[in-house]
Design brief:
By secondary structure, this protein is mainly alpha-helical. It contains five helices and no strands. One of its GO terms (molecular function) is metal ion binding.
Length: 132
């Protein structure tokens, strides 16, 4: 999971505490049916837009990308097959299975990497025990 928090140093503790509370809430309570439905709709829409982008891409560009993938030894599948597999995954996803996976992932020990912009004074932050 990756999150981006742009905040001045004086708001950093509050921002990190908010993120910790929200992650703990998702871990403990999971997503609601409405949140799940919204997420599923968002991912389905993104998949449609991605495939529409592929459809507008010139054949020579697609061939070049696939050739580079094969030369690099990267596993490569056709855009049509990707769409089919991804749609099958989204169709099989249930609220219960997603919440179970979220609980599993968010129950693992967490590591937070905080990158401060150059020139910003360094700030130490220690998570309170039990926040996550």
């Amino acid at each position: 999971m990756r999150s981006n928090l742009n905040s001045p140093n004086d708001n950093l503790n509050n921002g990190l505490a908010f993120i910790a509370r929200e992650l703990a809430n998702v871990r403990n309570n999971g997503l609601s049916q409405d949140e799940f439905n919204a997420l599923l709709a968002q991912k389905t829409d993104q998949l449609s837009k991605l495939f529409a982008t592929y459809a507008r891409t010139d054949t020579d560009v697609l061939m070049s990308q696939r050739l580079r993938s094969q030369q690099s030894g990267v596993v490569d599948i056709a855009p049509e097959q990707y769409q089919k597999l991804r749609q099958a995954f989204l169709s099989s996803l249930t609220l219960e299975s997603l919440n179970q996976e979220l609980k599993l992932q968010l129950s693992q020990d967490a590591t937070l990497v905080l990158l401060q912009p150059k020139g910003e004074p360094e700030m130490k932050y220690e998570a309170a025990p039990g926040n996550l």
